[in-house]
Amino acid sequence: MTTQRSSTAAAVGSWWVTTDAIVEGVHYLPDDPPDLVARKLLRVNLSDLAAMGARPLHYLLTTALPAAVGANWIANFARGLEEDQRRFGVDLLGGDSVATPGPALFSLTAIGEVAAGMEVRRSGAQPGDLVWVSGTIGDSFLGLGARGGAFPELPAEHRAALIARFQVPEPRVELGQRLAGTAHAMIDVSDGLLADLGHICETSHVGAVVELGRLPLSPAARLVLAAQPDIRLRLATGGDDYELLFSAASDAAETIARLACKARRADHHDR
């Protein structure tokens, strides 16, 4: 490949702030485990920070919960937050909690830090850049379908892998920080690869060519594609992948591969 999300981000010195919300029945299903709901809420915001090249530090949380949500659900939700606070080295500063007749809604504001002048914006893509993506595309879209009973022909392990990608995204926090200085422009894939690449192109005043046949796909997605060839475009537009999509100079391939390898080792060590 060559060269809307409803969230906001603003620079405050070397601190960066992003906020995003998830709604029951839209971003997660009512019977999803509460600890996974909490982890998804935190991780989609950390993914925004990763796309800026920022190191996550703190967050604020607002919850709007129906009366039917019991103490056990809330306790498990808190447990999920606690697990990922340790995993990503962030802490809760405070927030608010209100009642609602439903559905449940959660809003999280994440705060990160990046060295002055090292932040990666959406507006820096240059003519001649290549466009990279940090992992496979379309798994969350397929996972939502599998969660609802689609793709029954898939082996159980592949269905489980797709559902996991929908329920618990993996923010590329380490990679995002390491790409600062190499990536010209960067965004996380939330609206879908094509839409988010469009955001980069619009703000950078460039165009891009995408070869759908070269989309990076997981083994599970390849099996689905083999059975349903017309689904390829949906994989590029489905969204919620939370991979990093970035442009860089055409001669930066070796550097990017080295940075990705270091990021994988750091992620493995943190776990």
Structural class: alpha+beta
Main sheet makeup: 5 strands, mixed
The average pLDDT value, as a whole number, equals 92
Q: How many strands appear in the DSSP assignment?
A: 8
Number of helical regions: 9
Distance between the termini: 32 Å
Strand content: 15-25%
Radius of gyration (CA) equals: 18 Å
Order of helices and strands: EEHEHEEEHHHEHHHEH
- State the shape: globular
Proportion of residues in helical segments: 40-55%
Low confidence ranges: 1-8
**Major β-sheet strand ordering:** 1-2-5-3-4
Structural account:
Helix content is 41%, strand content 21%. It has 271 residues and is an alpha+beta fold. The chain has a 5-stranded mixed beta sheet. A 3-stranded antiparallel beta sheet has the order 6-8-7, with helices on both faces. Strand 1 and strand 2 form a beta hairpin. Helix 5 (173-179) packs antiparallel against helix 9. Residues 1-8 have low confidence and may be disordered.
